[in-house]
């Protein structure tokens, strides 16, 4: 593999820093090539502005058009062009970051904002149909991506029934809306939970998981996102009704239905005191209204789970 390791953490002494070092050593030991973009160490500028595109600041900045013109003419800012060369060289992108406020650090978002310009990462059309090539058919088709994310939360709280939300849902804008949009296949993410409470044993287990994921990445099945241009979506880019999963219909391994309410719900005990407040019924089972808060519509609609 030829791996671009995209890293966003301010402290190289952190758990993230140690995992990055372990991952790069694994790649080297098994004959894989790598290049690194350590955004904090590079003092990467995350802000899009007219100077990125050699654009006259007195004219209105239409980012898509200006970036496409600059890319085509070879006038992009040198730091952007350097990152694009790294990604063009690589066949694999590893994106590593801590989960901050349910998303990536701002400096990493700024890398995608500035590097994934029109013409380089999107904006191509099929010469036969004239349809935009995106969601599985973009300019970066043929590359694979792996997201490695640390979180202070426990693993279960980032699962389908966890209070923090399922990790694949939290990463949907990155994995589907950015990586898959540009054509990359996306491996299931690697979560390293409990980052603030890592023990030596937990660190050893985390590095072992990372090594395994890296070495098996070429044969790992990607997330089964639907392609835009293979018939699953209509001309308005809406998923066909017969493919839209019912909120309580089994969806395979990603489906976690709400337990069926008991036909005889437990009645609350009468208050012990005449003026006691009414019992709190928030945690009692309620009738199924078809609007379960556990229905995962965002991600599962766009996954092809057909056997």
Automatic annotation (TrEMBL):
Residues 236-307 are annotated as: Disordered. One of its GO terms (cellular component) is cytosol. Residues 295-307 have a biased composition (Polar residues). Keywords: Oxidoreductase. One of its GO terms (molecular function) is NAD(P)H dehydrogenase (quinone) activity. Residues 256-277 have a biased composition (Pro residues). Signal peptide: none annotated. Residues 1-213 form the Flavodoxin-like fold domain. The keyword Oxidoreductase applies. InterPro entries: Flavodoxin_fold, Flavoprotein-like_sf, NAD(P)H_dehydrogenase_qn. Belongs to the NAD(P)H dehydrogenase (quinone) family. This is NAD(P)H dehydrogenase. It comes from Streptomyces noursei. The lineage of its organism: Bacteria, Bacillati, Actinomycetota, Actinomycetes, Kitasatosporales.
């Amino acid at each position: 593999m030829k791996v671009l390791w995209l890293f966003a953490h301010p402290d190289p002494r952190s758990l993230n820093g140690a995992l990055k070092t372990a991952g790069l050593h694994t790649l080297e030991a098994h004959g894989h090539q790598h290049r690194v973009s350590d955004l904090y160490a590079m003092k990467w500028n995350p802000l899009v502005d007219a100077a990125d595109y050699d654009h006259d600041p007195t004219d209105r900045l239409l980012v898509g058009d200006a970036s496409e013109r600059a890319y085509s003419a070879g006038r992009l800012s040198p730091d952007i062009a350097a990152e694009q060369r790294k990604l063009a060289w690589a066949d694999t992108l590893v994106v590593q970051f801590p989960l901050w406020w349910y998303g990536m650090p701002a400096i990493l978002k700024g890398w995608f904002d500035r590097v994934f310009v029109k013409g380089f990462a999107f904006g191509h059309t099929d010469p036969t149909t004239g349809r935009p090539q995106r969601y599985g058919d973009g300019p970066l088709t043929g590359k694979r991506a792996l997201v490695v994310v640390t979180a202070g939360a426990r693993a279960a709280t980032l699962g389908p029934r966890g209070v923090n939300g399922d990790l694949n849902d939290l990463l949907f804008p990155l994995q589907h809306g950015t990586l898959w949009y540009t054509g990359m296949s996306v491996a299931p993410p690697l979560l390293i939970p409990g980052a603030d409470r890592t023990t030596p044993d937990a660190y050893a287990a985390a590095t072992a998981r990372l090594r395994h994921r890296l070495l098996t990445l070429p044969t790992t099945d990607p997330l089964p996102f639907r392609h835009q241009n293979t018939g699953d979506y209509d001309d308005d880019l809406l998923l066909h009704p017969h493919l839209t999963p019912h909120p309580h219909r089994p969806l395979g391994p990603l489906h976690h239905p709400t337990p069926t309410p008991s036909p005889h719900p437990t009645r609350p005990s009468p208050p012990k005191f005449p003026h006691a407040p009414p019992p709190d019924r928030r945690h009692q089972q309620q009738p199924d209204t078809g609007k379960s808060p556990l229905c995962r519509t965002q991600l599962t609609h766009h996954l092809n789970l057909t056997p």
